[in-house]
Design a protein that fits this description.
By secondary structure, the chain is an all-alpha fold. It contains three helices and no strands. Helix 1 packs antiparallel against helix 2 and helix 2 runs antiparallel to helix 3.
Length: 79
């Protein structure tokens, strides 16, 4: 099995999303903090990049909306 750079990028993105969720659950991060939305946006963007090379439609839809909602949270933070 060959692991491409895009697999590594996608795995880092998944790790960021999971870490963000763990930090939320253990109350080290709050959902109204900028870091929460930024980490989710970065994680989703990295997964989307990996999906450009190994496409999976359901995963693309989930990550696309994860990114859009995270960007909304970032915008909400600044407004």
């Amino acid at each position: 099995m060959n692991i491409g750079w895009y697999d590594i990028i996608g795995s880092v993105g998944v790790a960021i999303i999971i870490l963000t969720y763990v930090l939320l659950q253990i109350e080290r991060l709050r959902s109204d903090e900028l870091a929460y939305s930024l980490l989710n946006a970065v994680g989703a963007a990295l997964v989307l990049i990996s999906l450009l090379y190994s496409f999976n439609f359901p995963s693309f839809v989930v990550e696309f909306f994860w990114l859009v909602i995270s960007l909304f949270g970032i915008g909400k933070y600044f407004l």
